[in-house]
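Morning!

This is the sequence you dropped in the shared folder:
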Amino acid sequence: MKINVNELSNHLNEEIIFSGFVDAVRDKKWVMFVILRDATGKVQLTIEKSEEANKTLLDIMSEVTVDSTVRVVGKVVSNEAVKLGGLEIIPSKIEVTSEALPLPFDYNNLDGVNIDTRMDFKWLDMRNRRNTLIRQVESCLTEGMRSFLYENHFTEIHSPKLIGTASESGSDVFEVKYFDREAYLAQSPQFYKQMALAGGLDRVFEVGPVFRAEKSNTNRHATEFTGFDLEFAYIDSYEDVMDLEEDLLIAGLKVVKERYGDEILEIFGKEVIIPTKPFPRIKLKDLYQQLHDRYQFEIPKEDIGDMNAEAEKLTYKFAMEEYNSEFIFIVDYAATKRPFYHMRDSEGKLQGYDLIWRGTEITSGAQREHRYEELVKNANEKGLGKDVEFYLQFFQYGCPPHGGFGIGLDRLTMLLLGLPSLKETQFLFRGPNRLTP
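The structure's back. Tokens below.
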């Protein structure tokens, strides 16, 4: 098994095999220093020129290009003069396992490098420590939230992404050819989460791809992204859903802060702030009034009953001024602006919410409508009758009260690190004009 840089101190004075990228070669008069790196850090190889046995090693390393990969057999020794952790490897054998061509740009200095060029060469762009850290932070955040759900008796499910009808809104879906008929890429696992609850599982979640055929070129939209979705049964109201989301986010952020907080602050200049419960909550109409009184903001007519990007940014400002909170829940949205499966009370008021973090919506959650007759009425109201016939069947044979939400992991990571766009955040971005690599 490969030994990583961060494990070398466990092998002091031992002969080991180490593999990594060539980060730099410094050929001095009496000695050659080679800096190797892997995903966990860098280590120095020291090759003394005075030793006859090192001639072959010197010949190999004098020809190697930066970013080639090598396999080294050598001894790990302590040397206080070495800035890279006070350790170095004295090699006895070096094998070049892959030779690198000259690089199209310096990934250690991305200033002035066009984002499209960086995406074209994503595998090089990722070699910048900043971009490696993005991937590690998103993974850590996912791990922390997943662990919280496992500890709270959730079952992870894996729903199909090829579906037979254009679900949910009936629009913004990708059509694909499925043998002799049309199929669609799923907009979310929403219907299948609810099927699992109808099937007797009380608590479920899924982490997987989500597809949206939206020709949007904003910094926070993508045609494919990773969704973190959950649903759970036997709730009393959507307040239970909000309460669980608070705990979930706190759990995930705690793990990130513990493992990467210092490095995030150093590289991105962003502190990982662990919020406290409860997050502030405000009704939409009251928020409109606050935004008007404080910032002279009027919600456009077409957005009444909902939010837009400008309103979300001002809501963050309001939340910080009024509550000193980066998070704020907004409730009492118009039912006409939300999916048909969100529950409404006896007055027709939507039983759901949005969660705003750092000026951007990260979640739309709700108590779901589990009563068959109400679901049929709501679906027909939105003109979805036939499209959701298969879904409506779940509720004809008994289904407990339930609710849930979905979070876009890429957007969450973007906000956590203060990145300007999902193009920076996603491993491989997908948008209206980007389908490769």
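Headline: The chain has a mean pLDDT of 95.

More detail when I'm at my desk.
O.
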